[in-house]
Amino acid sequence: MIIGIGYNCAASLTNGTLEFLEQPKAKEIKLYILSTSEAVKLFNASSKKELLSFFHLNC
User: How many beta carbons lie within 10 A of that of residue 4, not counting itself?
Assistant: First the structure.
């Protein structure tokens, strides 16, 4: 999972999302929380198979 939190890293994850990501089942998920520019680079370099990505684009 790739999460882009804005070009200036202005976005943040909700407490509910952070709590979900701490659950044992979620521990199996490889997670990247990056600036949007770095997240897009990682996304473009990936095979995109079995990949979930979110990008914050308003900043």
Answer: 25
pLDDT tens for the 59 residues of the chain, in order: 999 999 898 898 999 988 988 888 887 888 899 999 999 999 999 988 888 898 887 75
Beta carbons within 8 Å of 4's beta carbon, 6+ residues apart: 34, 35, 36, 37, 38, 39, 40, 53, 54, 55, 56, 57
- Residue 9 structural domain: 2-55
In contact, 26 and 1? CB cutoff 8 Å: no
| Structural domains of the chain, count | 1
